[in-house]
Write a structure and sequence with these properties.
alpha/beta; eight-stranded parallel β-barrel; two-stranded antiparallel sheet; binds alpha-D-psicofuranose; binds manganese (II) ion
């Protein structure tokens, strides 16, 4: 697609989901640096997310993490959904958490003991109840399960337990709900991880059925992995459910998407466009934490980075590329792709924003809004939200 009107129209339909945990305090295992003005409740996280949507126009939903965003009372989640809508956003995916209880030392749904597996599955079923209350479509599952030592547990047996637990959750899903299974190469387990790669996630999702889809977290691969190949393959199989976008320099850094390798993000987005993923049900989510930088502007910048990579991907002259590929013109094919990547799409995105009726410069608009000062002044006392709380 090289027609700029069509590119702009496509960019206006883009939706990037932001994670509630990006707005809370976070850090490394060495230190969490608290910031002023950080939300003290799920509602305040949504208030911050609404600012991101207001200035970007393309971040209309917010992912929750349970129990970090746990609500009390029978109407807690419905009230939270209402709070979101009153601020112009909606609740998005529900992320489960089976990695922070003492019981989960040896795993959750792959744990050797049935009682722990039961507890983990119970949590996942509770997450589906929450989806019913929030109107969320997606249940995003990531398991910290694995082993640290050869012989510690039965590798194949753990796969059987995983399949059994997932099947129970899958059965509980409503017609319009999806189970999104996320893989991660390593951490916190270092010998075996029970869902380490896209192939394992794909095999489980295939067996579960059409409502089970794979999540590609861009930080969850070995160095040098060709992520765009995985994206192309999953899209071809109709099994790409969502992205967790972030950047990594070494391991699972969860830094701002597009910061470490904007070219990789472009290559991924090109495969998304090429494979029809841009107009399908693929969910584009951020999964990031902002440890040393201001959180809201960092989320805004991340959304803009996704937009820029998408714009470049949409600008690839597909006809010229196909012609060069068919005639084996290696240099020309590569040049066509690089032409799009090297285009400065910032003026185009300014136009997109103007046409959406928002400020062409989201970061400047946020700075001018006074929100950063307001939250520092008003959010005094109480307990700040943080990764893991
Ligand atoms: C695990 O590293 C992960 O990517 C999963 O998506 C979790 O839900 C999230 O991070 C928690 O930050
Ligand atoms: Mn993730």
């Amino acid at each position: 697609m090289t027609d700029s009107a069509a590119v702009k129209a496509a960019l206006k339909t883009q939706a990037v989901e932001t994670p509630s945990w990006a707005y809370g305090n976070s850090g490394t295992r060495f230190k969490v640096f608290a910031q002023q003005g950080v939300p003290r409740s799920p509602q305040e996280k949504l208030d911050d997310a609404a600012q991101v949507h207001a200035v970007t126009g393309v971040a209309p939903t917010v992912a929750l993490h349970i129990p970090w965003d746990k609500m009390d009372g029978p109407d807690g989640y419905a009230d939270l959904a209402k709070h979101a809508e009153e601020r112009g956003v909606k609740l998005g995916a529900i992320n489960s958490n089976t990695f922070q209880d003492d019981d989960y030392k040896l795993g959750s749904i792959c744990h050797p003991e049935a009682a722990v597996r039961r507890k983990a599955v119970g949590h996942l079923l509770e997450c589906v109840d929450i989806m019913d209350a929030t109107g969320s479509r997606d249940l995003k599952l990531w398991f910290a399960d694995g082993t640290n030592y050869p012989g510690q547990d039965d590798i194949r047996g753990r796969q059987d337990r995983l399949a059994e637990g997932l099947a129970e959750v899958y059965e509980r899903l409503g017609d319009d709900q999806r189970l999104l299974l996320e893989y991660k190469l390593f951490e916190p387990a270092f010998y075996t991880t029970d869902v380490p790669d896209w192939g394992t996630a794909y095999a489980h999702c295939l067996k579960l059925g059409p409502k089970a889809q794979v999540v590609v977290d861009t930080g969850h691969h070995a160095p040098g992995t060709n992520i765009e190949f995985i994206v192309a393959t999953l899209l071809r199989e109709g099994k790409l459910g969502a992205f967790d976008f972030n950047s990594r320099f070494y391991a699972d850094d969860d830094l701002m998407v597009g910061a470490a390798d904007p070219f990789q993000l472009f290559r991924i987005m090109y495969e998304v466009v090429r494979g029809g993923g841009f107009t399908s049900d693929v969910a584009f989510m951020l999964d990031q934490c902002h440890n040393i930088e201001a959180k809201i502007p960092a989320v805004i910048r991340s959304v803009m980075n996704v937009q820029e990579a998408t714009a470049k991907a949409l600008l690839v002259d597909r006809d010229a590329l196909t012609a060069a590929q068919r005639t084996g013109d290696v240099l020309e094919a590569n040049a066509v792709l690089m032409d799009a990547y090297n285009t400065d799409v910032r003026p185009l995105l300014r136009e997109v924003r103007e046409e959406l009726g928002i400020d062409p410069d989201p970061i400047a608009a946020y700075r001018r809004s006074g929100w950063a000062e307001k939250i520092v002044a008003e959010r005094v006392g109480g307990e700040q939200a943080g990764w893991g709380a």
